[in-house]
Amino acid sequence: MKYSELAMVYESLESTTKRLEKTWIISRFLKKTSIDDLPPIILLLQGRVFPTWDESKIGVAARMVLKAVNVASGISVEKIESEWKKIGDIGKVAEKLIDKKKQKTLFSQELSVSKVFNNLRKLPELEGQGSVDQKVQLIAELLTSSTPIEARYIIRTVLEDLRVGVADGTIRDAIVWAFFEKDINLNYDEKEKSINPESREKYNEYSEAVQSAYNVCNDFSAVAEAVKKSGLEGLGKIKLRTGKPIKVMLYQKATGIENAFERVGKPAALEFKYDGFRIQAHKKSGKIILYTRRLEEVTKQFPDVLECVKNNVRADEFIIDSEAVGFDQKTGKYLPFQSISQRIKRKHNIDEMAQKFPVELNVFDIVSYNGKNMMKEPYLKRRDILEKMIKQEPKKILLAKQIITDDLKKAEKFYKQSLDAGEEGIMVKKLDGIYKPGSRVGFGVKVKPVMETLDLVIVGAEWGTGKRSGWLSSFILACRDTDTGEFLEIGRVGTGIKELEGSGVTFEQLTEMLKPLITEEKGRIVKIKPRIIIEINYEEIQKSPTYSSGYALRFPRLVKLRDDKGADEASEIDFVEDLYYNQKK
Ligand code: AMP
C-alpha cells in the first residue's frame, strides 16, 4: 500500500474530534487493507511501530529530526530551527520545507507503508559509534521520497507524537465495524455521524471478544490480523502467553469503606494496599521474567525478587501479580515507594542496591497457572491457588494480608491496621470478580485516607529567564480524556521552592528529563511529549476557561514523580469532574 493513502486517513482523522466519525474512517480503511499490510497499518494508526508489549521504542529526539530534515531538504539547521520556533510542530515544519524542495527533485520514489514501517523499526536497533548518522539517514531517506503531507506524519511518528486522536477504544471499535459489520447490523449515518441502536446492541458481544483478545496479547495488529483471517474463531486462537507482559488490572477509588462495599458487594475481600510498585512475575521453561505495570522488563534490576520467586513459588509456569514494598533493614518497617523507586531504572551496582534497599514481594493475584488462563476465574479461586503455590517467608515473599468480611466495624479496624503498618490504605475486592486488565472495572476498589491527589502528565513547559535561563521554569499539566485519548490541560506548576518542596526532585532534574521530549518550541513555550507523570496536590479545583479541560488547580504542588506510571494512567477528566463536584458538597 502507498503511504499516501495512510497519510490521507491521518488527515481526515485530524480534521474531526468526533469519536464515531474517527471509528468510521478507520473501519473503512481497514476493510480495504490487505492482510499483509494490516498489522503495520494498525500500529501506524496508533502512531507506533512496535506493539505495547514490546519494549523497543523509536527513541529519537527533536534535534535528530531537525538534522534529518536538513539532510533531506538541504536547508540549514539554523533555518529549520527558526521555522520550528515559529511554527511549533516539527511535522509541519518538514511539510513546509519539503514542499520547497520537491519542485527540484522529480525522481523520488513513491513511498510505501512497508518502507516507512521498516525504516522506523530499524531506528532503535542502531547503537554505538556512527549510529546517530545512520538514524538521520534512515529518516532523511523517507523524507526525500515523501510528499509534504507525508513528511508531516513521518516526522510525527518518529517523534512518537502523532496527534490524530486515536484511542485504544477507537481502534477496537473500528476492528469490529470493519470485520463484523454484518454481524452487528452496522448502520452508520454519515450525515449525523451516528449509528443505529441495533448496531449498538449487537456490538457489545463482538467488542468484548475483540477486547478480550487484546487483553491477552496487547497488540491490536495481531488481533486485527486474526479477525481478518478467521473472524471470531481467529480471536479464540489468541492465547495468553507466559513471558509476554500483560496490562494489569487497575482499581478505582472508593470514597470510603461503605462506598467500597456498595461497589463490590458484601462480603468482600479486604487487603492491605501496599505502597510499593507493581511487579508481574512470569515463569516459563524454568526462566523467570519480571515486568513493571508499564510492561518494562526489570528482571536484571531485581535479583533478590527473582531469587525468592524461584525458590518460593511452586509451579512450572505462571504469571503472578504483586507489589514489591521497600522496608527498613534495621527497624523492619515498611518504607514509602520513593525510597525504592530508584531501583527500577538502575543499570549498575545492582547487587549493592538490592542490599541497601531490600523489598518484600506481596502477591495478590494470579493471571496464568500452569498454562491455563485464570482471568475468567473468580477472585477467591485465584487466591486459593496462590495460597497453595506460595511458600510464604516474611521480608521475602508473602500473600497480600487479607480478611473476608461484610462487617463495617471489622473492615474499619483492618483499614486502621494497614495505615498503622505504614501502608496506604486498603483494597476491597469482589469475591467472584474476574481479572480484567485496564481500569473502569468494578472488580476491586481502593480506599485511601489522604485528600485525593492527581496524577498529571507534563505536556508543556516554559524556559526560564535570568538566573533560570536554560532551565524549564514551569510545567503545563494535563489530565486525560479516555474516550479520545487526548490530554486536556488543567494548570501549571512552577518550579519554586514551595512548589517542589519535599518531592525529592529538583527543577534541574526535571529539565533534563523533559529536554529530549520537546516536540515544539514557540518563543519560551515548549510542547512536550506526554510521557512524564507527576503527582500533584492542590488546594482546590476551580472551573476555568483558560485550560482545555475546563478546570484549573489552585496552588498546585508537586508531591512526587510517578515514574512507575505511563501517560495512559494519568487521571481522567471524569475523575477531576467528580472531585470538583464532591468538594462543592
Ligand atoms: P494506585 O496506584 O493508587 O492507583 O493504586 C493501585 C495500585 O496499588 C495497584 O496498581 C498496585 O500496584 C497497588 N497495590 C498495593 N496493594 C495491592 C493489593 N493488595 N491489591 C492490588 N493492588 C495493590
Report what the structure shows.
The structure is a single chain. The chain has about 575 residues and is α+β, with helices and mostly antiparallel strands. Among the domains are: about 250-445, 2-Layer Sandwich (D-amino Acid Aminotransferase, Chain A, domain 1); about 455-585, Beta Barrel (OB fold (Dihydrolipoamide Acetyltransferase, E2P)), CATH 2.40.50.140. The chain contains 21 helices and 22 strands. The strands form five sheets. Strands 14, 15, 16, 17, 18, 19 and 22 form a seven-stranded antiparallel β-sheet that branches. Strands 5, 6, 7, 8, 9 and 10 form a six-stranded mixed β-sheet that branches. Strands 3-13-12-4-11 form a five-stranded mixed β-sheet. A hairpin with a 2-residue loop joins strand 5 (about 275-285) and strand 6 (about 285-290). Helix 3 (about 40-45) crosses helix 12 (about 220-235). It is globular and about 70 Å long. The termini are far apart. The mean pLDDT is about 90. The structure holds adenosine monophosphate (AMP). Adenosine monophosphate (AMP) binds near residues 271, 273, 278, 323 and 364.
